[in-house]
Amino acid sequence: TIDTLIGIGDVVRFTAVAHDPGGSLVPGVTFAWSTSNAAVATVDHTGTVFAQGNGTATITATAAGGAAASATFTSARIAARLSMQFPFSIPASPMSIASDGAAYFVMDGGTSPSQINEYDLAGNFVASVAVPLDSRALLFDPVGRSFYAKQYGVSSLDWYRVDPLSGATSVVLSGIFSFTQSSPGLAPDQSTIYEHQLGTVRLLNFSSGALSGTLTGVTAGTNASGDGNAIATDGQWLYTWDETTATVFVSDMAGRLVTSFVLPAGSGFNGYSLSFANGMLWVASNPAAGSEWFGFELSRQ
User: Fold this and answer.
1) What pTM was estimated for this model as a whole?
2) Which fold has domain 78-300?
3) What CATH class does 10-75 carry?
4) What does each C-alpha distance from 274 to 213, 220, 251 come to in angstroms?
């Protein structure tokens, strides 16, 4: 079974092959294609599926002898609704936002030390603290209830544990990153750190830092000092973006583009700032464009 998400009006080609009981490929087998819900997806005799509406359909390929296999097909558009917006004041560029569910923590970068600002869940400023890093990301691990940061640096591509209240830091994993400017994402289940640069995503084991895989050809922006380094995840999808057009690209966990959407608010964004925190996708405008964080709730249309 293969689960596929694409946008309404899009087309995807399914293929089917036959194997004998020993697992060997059987050539020359033809298949009849069918759909369980033509309002969601139709399929022609070649296995080409056409997304017709929101929902899920089962696409089935049946061989002449009656053997069949199915794939689940989900068609939807993802919409972003501005849910929260608040101003910030930091010395340098907004890099990321993280939340432990009780507060928001905003970290800047492009300078060392960096600064972390704490805001309550209504977006009201609480306190700030200096952190001895030139940060590119601040991330919260909901399993271990800890904050982590990745800093900029050619010789210091390390993974830090950070106390956002005191500013204290400690190296957890040394030299695990490959991209100087990357602003990584963290899987909510504490399994994987996602490091991105210009369409290449490295999958790093959260506990050891070991490389567990690489995704290539991921759709993303092309600014090598901005959106080309940013990635966020909610554990179901990978999010990258184009900071100039405010277009967010949604890929499956294998890095395949499934849909995209344009953010409905804000401008003058900082490309590094793409974050996922407290159930929302976040981006920030640069100081010249108003110094605000924008939180978007995502839903399928």
Assistant:
1) 0.79
2) Neuraminidase (2.120.10)
3) mainly beta
4) 22, 12, 15
